[in-house]
Amino acid sequence: MADEGTTTGGAAVQETAAETVTETAPREYRVEELAAAAGITVRTLRFYRERGLIPPPRRAGRIAWYGPHHLARLRTIAALLERGHTLNGIADLAAAFESGRDVGQVLGLGEPTEEEPVRLTPEQLADHFGDQVTPENFAAALDLGYLATDGEEIVHVSRRLLEVSAALVKEGIPLSAVLAAAARVREHADALAGLFADLLRAHAGGEADAVRLRPLAKSVVEAEVSMALDRRLRGLSS
Q1: In a domain, 139, yes or no
Q2: Closest CA to 145 of 193, 109, 198, 188
Q3: What is the pLDDT of residues 60-69, one digit of tens each?
Q4: In a 3-state reduction of DSSP, which class is residue 167?
Q5: What is the pLDDT, as a whole number, of residue 105?
Q6: Which of 219, 213, 74 is nearest to 152 (CA)?
């Protein structure tokens, strides 16, 4: 009886261990299971695969296994279709997404000291900018370093810039124009940053003093930009 108890106990331990592995391992799907989970037909799933809208599955012999990232991509495709995107546009967007710089490259020097990065799904990005989330605009934002990719997610480096950009688009300004203006602003901002970095490097006691005086340099720039906007806006109204 003791042997039976030992055997039963060992089987129970093995069974518990198997359950733990099952719970922690990522779920994988056969093609029929993935299609059912995504609410589409197998034919549609295969069409998406042929168009390159989803990455290749893992092959085990003759069986194709799909993972959670495939299901996430299919749900993104459905969401973008609902928002008015075409399959051609989604395919181009997927290609731009997969060629985008990894978030580590964009934030490789450490996260911004004041700007808060924001994680977004592709459909959340579309919620901000609608049908203006085109491959061209996506590539421009990647080039500016505003966006980066992290698995199936997109990272915007600044919540403040994301919200301002979305507000401008909602006011009727095309996203392409916002991004083009941002590229020009970047040039001037880099020049201003260089001017103040040189000033602080020449007259501050060291890096600690330069960091401490940084808010003063930022306040000068903000005040000058504010007054410049006032002058320009007065010119528009006259």
Answers
A1: no
A2: 109
A3: 888 899 998 8
A4: helix
A5: 53
A6: 74
16 pLDDT higher than 90: no
List the end-to-end C-alpha distance of the chain, in Å, as a whole number.
101
pLDDT tier at 6, thresholds 50, 70, 90: very low
Q: What is the pLDDT of residue 237?
A: 67
CATH no. for residue 67? 1.10.1660.10
Q: What gap in Å lies between CA 51 and CA 91, rounded to an integer? A: 7
**Residue 103: partners with Cβ closer than 8 Å, 6 or more residues away:** 148, 149, 150, 155
Check whether 5 has a pLDDT greater than 50. Answer: no
The tally of domains found in the chain comes to 1
Q: Is 222 domain-assigned? A: no
Average pLDDT over residues 221-231: 91
**6 beta partners:** none
The answer to whether position 56 is within a domain reads: yes
CA angle 81, 84, 87 (to 5 degrees): 50
pLDDT digit string (tens) for 109-132? 444 457 888 998 888 888 999 889
What distance in Å separates the CA atoms of residue 116 and residue 105, rounded to the nearest whole number? 16
Question: Looking at the domain assignment, is residue 159 inside a domain?
Answer: no
Query: Domain residues for 24?
Result: 16-82
Please state, in angstroms and rounded to a whole number, the distance separating the CA atoms of residues 142 and 163. 17
